[in-house]
User: Fold SOUL heme-binding protein from Panicum hallii.
Amino acid sequence: MAPLCSASPRPLEAPGQPRRGARPPRTVAVAAGARASGAEARASLVLALASQALAASQRRAADLAAEAAKYAFPSRRFEPRTLEEALMSVPDLETVPFRVLKREADYEIREVESYFVAETTMPGRFGFDFNGSSQSFNVLASYLFGKNVASEQMEMTTPVITRKGEPSSETMEMTTPVITKKSAGENKWKMSFVMPAKYGSNLPRPKDPSVTIKEVPSKIVAVAAFSGLVTDDDISKRESKLRESLQKDTEFRVKDGSVVEVAQYNPPFTLPFTRRNEIALEVKRNDISS
Assistant:
């Protein structure tokens, strides 16, 4: 009888221990590596976004500081004649270029270069009531800061000009920031913002139909400066005084049909005694041929 073949006994395996020759699992290592790569990507993204936000905030802070400096360190483009004018401050903003032709005790004669304005008719009967002025200012500021067909944001200029409107048969505009003028025939006032000179005639078209763009031709004006708050009664008195003073001028006289314009150079938060306001009347040289 052939002997029975007995197989080698298989060693006992400890519970949970892998068999001999079995391939070790790699799932855990792959998953750990994926988690590490994902965390690194998220961290890099967060750092990149934080860096961009910091750079943007620094640029914004620099822009705000530069803008604030224009008001904190006012321009000295006007030569003071009196203590009142010496206390006046004017923001270092773009304005209309002019040349002084003559200086008197109560006024000066300027030759003003041509410029463009954005203009709107004020809703009230008066030029300097709070509601009408605020509404007109906001309309023009909206145009300046992007409410136009090009969505162009333009820099603020000075002054704001308020003027009496002319009769419909006559076209006339005036100088600088916001101008308010009263219409002789319609009893309406107009407010204007001077447009940045770099645009010239290529200004974006307003979206608001109540805003019009006009070119103001070069002209000669008589200007009287004053500080404080502006009221209709005060402007009426100052206009009369300026007209009386110009009657004594042997070189210049008020141009026929000239209407008063008021230029305000300062933002609302300026102290009244440091504000610079001006009234202006267009003049022309006297005919000395005779």
